[in-house]
Design goal:
- The chain is mostly beta strands and 114 residues long.
- Helix content is 6%, strand content 40%.
- The strands form two sheets. Strands 4-5-6-8-7 form a five-stranded mixed beta barrel.
Length: 114
């Protein structure tokens, strides 16, 4: 399971996080959990590990991750913030742990607007 940012005004989800919602211009965010997403596209990177990069979709949310195990376009796969041991496919989406996707502080928003 991964965490993403969710606009409290309209419900739109984002990763990486934002200061303002692109859908409603809201500035109130919370953290939401996402357990699975569907593989939309897949690209094999010809490196030593033969990494497969995937675009993952869950409603309004689009993510990019690395696929571990076998899965095809259209498959629903579990999401994790880092590689885990175990059978079956899993999509690793780095940077999606709860402390990394927390909404920006008001202090940061004020500093950015200067």
């Amino acid at each position: 399971m991964i965490t993403v940012q969710r606009c409290q005004d309209c419900g739109r989800r984002y990763f990486p996080g934002r200061l303002l919602c692109a859908a409603c211009d809201g500035a109130n965010f919370t953290v939401a959990e996402v357990a699975k997403a569907r593989i939309e596209t897949s690209t094999l990177v010809h490196d030593a590990a033969a990494t497969r990069l995937v675009t993952l979709v869950d409603g309004d949310l689009v993510l990019v991750g690395a696929l571990h195990g076998r899965a095809e376009r259209g498959d629903l796969v579990p999401l994790h913030p880092r590689a885990i041991d175990g059978p079956g496919p899993v999509a690793v989406v780095p940077g999606t742990e709860s402390d990394e996707t927390a909404p920006p502080s008001r202090h940061l928003q004020e500093e950015t607007s200067r």
